[in-house]
Design goal:
about 525 residues; 5-stranded parallel beta sheet; single chain; about 30% helix; Alpha-Beta Plaits; 7-stranded mixed beta sheet; binds flavin-adenine dinucleotide
């Protein structure tokens, strides 16, 4: 198979032209192309706006075609598909995966496909029941601390934009995308340069994954929370679990901790049990909302609104004199800002969107880097720091999970906002117009205020007067790392820290890849 890079199509050109263009590059008649598929598709908006494709093609006499075409853009396609480890016999004590986010689900899937028949514990409910809990929370402010935007089947990624891009190359990524497609995700995620599935598809994918896991003998227990560990001579021997029928003891010699970044009670328990961990840098800030049409205009200029163009996104960063980085995070074109709290009396924002990304607004995190020097005091100090910000935002919102919000112009002039301009905030259960300088720490407001005009020079209108800042975003990553050795195991043997909560991933794809990696390591020991 040959790979052809850099094939361009103008916005009004049809994809049926790709065959002709590929034939021209390969210098063969179009009829000699036996198979042609899109391997990657990107929007290039640097000079004008066009699509750029990487194609994979099967031709007759490949070696001769490659020699003759003498084109650097053509090469033999190198493909090393990911392979799961060889099967094992089901162990006497099944491995227990704690957490059904992307990390835990892909870990359980690999274990189950290899015959290890794992148990999967998840404190929240399945995605159908969880959806009802989340919808009630957004409508009424009534929070279920075990079943919410952070907790439940699918983990933190279930109510998200479902961005699936990564900054790294790993054969596991293709396996993850193919698994998602096999369970109902749109096929374009296999080749889009910036793939995303949206919350709507994620829900049915999760139900499909659950079906496969169950068929493979994985024992999925929703509503079951890990509350304690039993160890003997430095080895795990049992888990204490709180389930719908009350507390129970689960003998276990291998437990994969795929807890996500919001399992604060569990981190406290692990710390008290002597599991080694260390503090880690994170980023906090606000969600910033614009009208999608304005972002499209800034990115696509005269072509904004073209029906073949996706809702535009952006990726911004700057480094400030105070040594801090300020950057955009998890941008959700055509999406909405969501209430993402998991604890009472603490307000948290994040963003999500549907596959169509057809909402009126575009929102993104506007975050500022913080380090353990900002929250001295050991591995749990970062959690205290996050809680403090969330409690301030909750109080400023007036209770019931309304979030404090401010227009960008008012923020820059340090005066309270009285109401929205042309950007209407999407956060539910609602915002309270405020002065964020009275809510957030000074270093954070100053950093955001310095960054806004700088970032506006990169995407025109980013700091427009009516852009809405909604506080506070604190769950961008985990403020601690649960230490593991080269083989992936904690010093407390039998514990396998995994995914974002353990500090080894950031985002859906890297958490899922870490889940697979951890399963490979556990399988080696079975
Ligand atoms: C609103 C929102 C939007 C996001 N959008 C994107 C995006 O578009 N793209 C992207 O790449 N990332 C996104 N993220 C981040 C992404 O969701 C996470 O990086 C990813 O889910 C981390 O995976 P994980 O498996 O490590 O942890 P999680 O997904 O957090 O899963 C951990 C699971 O463990 C469970 N758990 C915790 N403690 C216990 C316990 N004691 N017992 C039993 N179960 C427990 C939790 O209930 C949870 O289900 C978003 C996050 C949020 C909140």
């Amino acid at each position: 198979m040959l790979q052809i890079e850099g094939i361009k199509l103008e916005l009004d050109e049809d994809e049926s032209l790709l065959r002709q263009k590929a034939a021209a590059v390969l210098r063969v008649p179009a009829g000699e192309i036996l198979e042609l598929k899109i391997f990657r598709k990107a929007v290039d908006a640097r000079e004008g706006v066009r699509f750029v494709y990487t194609l994979r093609s099967v031709v007759k006499d490949e070696a001769r075609v490659l020699r003759r075409c003498r084109n650097k853009a053509v090469a033999a396609a190198a493909e090393t598909p990911y392979q799961l480890p060889p099967p094992v016999s089901p162990p006497e004590l099944p491995p227990v995966v704690v957490g059904a986010g992307p990390g835990g689900l892909f870990c359980a899937l690999a274990l189950a496909r290899c015959g290890a028949r794992p148990i999967l514990l998840e404190r929240g409910w399945n995605v159908e029941r969880r959806q009802e809990d989340v919808e009630r929370f957004w409508q009424t402010g009534e929070l279920n601390p075990q079943s919410n935007v952070q907790f439940g089947e699918g983990g933190a990624g279930a109510f998200s934009d479902g961005k699936l891009n990564t900054g790294t190359r790993d054969p596991r990524h293709r396996f993850i995308l193919e698994t998602l497609v096999a369970h109902g995700a749109p096929e374009c995620i296999l080749y889009d340069a910036k793939p995303h599935v949206g919350t709507d598809y994620l829900r049915c994918v999760l139900a499909g994954l659950r079906r496969e896991l169950t068929e493979l003998g994985c024992d999925i227990r929703f509503g079951h929370r890990l509350t304690g560990l039993e160890q003997s001579a430095g080895r795990l021997c049992a888990l204490q679990v709180e389930g719908p029928a009350g507390p129970c003891r689960l003998p276990a010699s291998a437990a994969i901790l795929a807890l996500g970044n919001s399992a604060r009670d569990t981190f406290e328990m692990l710390h008290a049990a002597g599991v080694p961990m260390e503090p880690k840098p994170l980023a906090v800030g606000v969600r910033i909302e614009h009208r999608q049409a304005d972002i499209d205009l800034a990115q696509y200029k005269a072509l904004a609104g073209h029906p073949r163009l996706p809702a535009a996104s952006y990726k911004l960063s700057c480094h400030l004199d105070n040594g801090r980085g300020v950057f955009s995070f998890c941008v959700c074109p055509g999406g909405q800002v969501v209430a993402a709290a998991s604890e009472p009396d603490r307000a948290v924002t994040n963003g999500m969107s549907l596959f169509a990304r057809d909402g009126v607004n575009c929102n993104g995190g506007l975050l500022c880097s913080v380090t353990p020097e900002d929250f001295p005091g050991g591995p749990l100090a970062g959690i205290a720091f996050q809680r403090e910000l969330e409690a301030r935002a909750f109080a400023a919102g007036g209770g019931n999970f309304a979030a404090p919000a401010q227009r960008a112009e008012d923020f820059l002039l340090r005066r309270p906002s009285a109401g929205p301009g042309k950007v209407l905030p999407t956060y539910r259960p609602g915002v309270k117009w405020s002065n964020l300088w009275d809510v957030l720490p000074d270093f954070l407001c100053q950093s955001i205020a310095q960054a806004l005009p700088v970032l506006d020079r990169k995407v025109r209108g980013y700091a427009s007067p009516d852009a809405v800042l909604t506080a506070v975003e604190t769950r961008s990553s985990c403020p601690l790392r649960i230490l593991r050795d080269q083989q992936g195991e904690s010093r407390l043997q039998g514990l396998w820290p995994c995914g974002e909560g353990a500090g080894y991933a950031g985002g859906i794809m890297s958490a899922a890849a870490d889940g697979l990696r951890t399963a490979e390591q556990v399988l080696r020991t079975l």
